[in-house]
Design a protein that fits this description.
This protein folds into 2 domains: about 270 residues, 7-stranded beta/alpha barrel (Alpha-Beta Barrel), CATH 3.20.110; about 140 residues, no CATH class. The chain is about 50% helix and about 5% strand. The protein has 23 helices and 9 strands. Strand 1, helix 1 and strand 2 form a beta-alpha-beta unit. Helix 1 packs across helix 10, helix 2 runs antiparallel to helix 10 and helix 21 packs antiparallel against helix 23. The protein is globular and about 70 Å long. The N and C termini lie far apart (about 50 Å).
Length: about 575
């Protein structure tokens, strides 16, 4: 019997990330995406890996997401056991910990919130859910049909809203939770959900949330999954280090008024170091690799990873192209494409750099959701086999890196991507020549090719244009610089005791997150821009409050309004 040698290394890296949605450090959650993605995507993604023990992958977590998952599990437990309301309005309404309001505006808000999902996959297939919305003239997209809704809301019973809330949470349950007897019963029941029904549903949700991090830890401990991390608050490290890092890809774009973010390199190191502490708390080990937020790299960021002994990082194909241009790489397409798949050692640095195959990653993120699962997986495998053939005898010295969000694509797939991921993991884990692996393994075993220069940029266009370089985004940075200056003055004057200083440090980290800047500008929908810019201004005001400094009046005025379609930028879906 002959054996076939594995010829091409393939790494799938799922990036799990949600920004900090709370008002301040202990306030209310303004948006529900942590727990909704928890009961749907984080749970299902673990289940797929558990079902295929021969499958290997990298799962990357933002530490600020780890903390929020844990917090939700604890708050939901206290709600179920002690009747203590959570800090999330939607959960409290579902549980009956908050009464259904009587005024039309508050009722309208509930209806709008219960439409925030991808309607073709999560509303249309359920006649009872669809009927609840059609009953009041609501469209399937939040924010429409408001005038008609206002004329009917006063006549609706509380049970109407309880049924709507129950359905919303049922459709957000992942495919791996659907076989549970309770879930099957509630889906069949369709209406008149009792307090007992809703509390049983909440128990399923809480049990799921509490089990998420232990499940991923178990996958890592048995060697099937490599867990990696992003810096604590998901900041763009190269921009904290130096605004000039935007110039590699955007030489002529306008910059914030400040020349630099004050003390930014120190803050970047704090996010990295504190991120490791949080990661180690939940997973019992330090990460081998770091996916810098948004794949945002620069040589100064790479030096910081070197200082910490990080084995690998990764970024996008656009950065690879920019780096090749700066390093004088071959311009022949075949030669340059081959270098994309090589683990890279940038001159003067130890941390290995991997480059994302944008085309393959975006097929999963944006294209395959409308394909039959078998056709999509067959196409994906065919692309990998073609790459292996083109590389010839050197294929086993190369790594194809497929990196994308692990949560945002699946609601666009039938059954939350179940059929696609099931077929993908089955084919990849049993393929005779494709070697599914992890970045840690490849950084240690596959020879790295040298690169003279690493261009500064991200996995979005190879630039930082999604976060800086336009009017609204720069204004957001100017606001952050101002509060950082106030922070520096206050700490230098010794005005805060140890407890309040620690709180201010964490609150500053929240303000430094990348997602605020992602949403600012005219390219994104007004509703989402409003959600994020309001919360950003709230976080800045909270930091001023902790510092004992009066916040500037400009924080009472919206800094961005939006108006376009979602800014996917070829990498993610940021509607939720």
């Amino acid at each position: 019997m002959t054996t076939t040698t594995k010829s091409l290394n393939v790494v799938l890296c799922w990036h799990m990330h949600q920004p900090y949605y709370r008002e301040g450090l202990k306030g209310a959650y303004h948006l529900p995406w942590v727990y909704l993605h928890g009961i749907k995507d984080y749970s299902d993604m673990a289940a797929h890996l558990e079902r295929y023990p021969a499958m290997r992958a990298v799962v990357n977590f933002a530490p600020v997401l780890l903390e929020q998952i844990d917090d939700y599990a604890q708050q939901m437990d206290a709600l179920l056991k002690q009747g203590k309301p959570t800090q999330d309005h939607m959960i409290n309404l579902l549980a009956g910990a908050e009464r259904i309001p009587s005024d039309a505006a508050a009722r309208l808000a509930i209806i709008r919130d219960c439409q925030r999902c991808h309607a073709p996959r999560m509303i249309h297939p359920y006649p009872a859910y669809r009927g609840l919305l059609e009953m009041v003239g609501a469209t399937y997209e939040a924010g429409h049909g408001e005038s008609r809704l206002h004329t009917h809301l006063g006549y609706l019973s509380e049970q109407y809203f309880l049924d709507l809330l129950t359905w919303y949470h049922l459709v957000w349950l992942g495919n791996s939770l659907r076989p549970l007897p309770l879930v099957r019963r509630l889906l069949a029941q369709g209406r008149d959900f009792s307090s007992a029904d809703r509390h049983e549903l909440l128990y399923v949700m809480q049990h799921c949330m509490a089990g998420l991090l232990p499940r991923y830890r178990a996958l890592a401990e048995r060697g099937q999954v490599e867990l990696s991390m992003t810096p604590y608050g998901h900041p763009i490290v190269p921009l904290l280090n130096d605004f000039k890092n935007m110039r590699d890809a955007l030489p002529d774009a306008p910059a914030p008024e400040a020349a630099v973010y004050p003390g930014g390199a120190v803050r970047a190191r704090w996010h990295l170091q504190h991120g490791v502490e949080v990661f180690e708390h939940y997973f019992g080990r330090k990460p081998t690799g770091v996916w810098l937020s948004e794949g945002g790299v620069s040589e100064d960021a790479l030096a910081q990873l070197d200082e910490m002994g990080v084995a690998w990082t990764a970024t996008g194909e656009g950065v690879w192209r920019g780096s090749c241009a700066k390093s004088g790489c071959p311009v022949d397409e075949t030669q340059t494409k081959r270098s994309l798949f090589s683990p890279t050692r940038v001159d003067g640095f130890k941390t290995r750099v991997f480059f994302r195959d944008d085309g393959l990653s975006d097929l999963i993120g944006f294209k395959y959701s409308d394909w039959h699962a078998d056709d999509a997986v067959g196409d994906f495998i065919h692309h990998l086999e073609n790459i292996a053939t083109s590389l010839g005898k050197t294929a086993n010295q190369n790594v194809v890196s497929v990196i994308l969000d692990g949560e945002n694509a699946w609601e666009y797939y039938p059954d939350n991507g179940h059929h696609f991921l099931d077929a993908l993991y089955s084919r990849l884990s049993s393929h005779p020549t494709l070697n599914v692996s992890t970045f840690a393994e490849q950084a240690a075993s596959t020879p790295a090719k040298p690169l003279k220069r690493l261009a500064a940029g991200s996995w979005v266009y190879g630039s930082f244009s999604t976060w800086i370089g336009s009017t609204d985004k720069n204004r957001g940075w100017d606001y952050l610089v101002a509060v950082k200056q106030a922070y520096d003055r206050t700490l230098a004057a010794g005005k805060l005791d140890t407890e309040h200083q620690a709180m201010a440090i964490r609150q500053l980290a929240v303000c430094e997150g990348s997602d605020w800047f992602w949403w600012f500008g005219d390219h994104n929908p007004a509703g989402s821009v409003s959600d994020f810019e309001q919360l950003y201004r709230t976080q800045l005001r909270e930091l001023y409050r902790l510092l004992g400094v009066a916040p500037p009046a400009l924080l009472d005025v919206p800094l961005s309004h939006g108006g376009g379609a979602a800014e996917n930028a070829g990498t993610m879906r940021r509607n939720t």
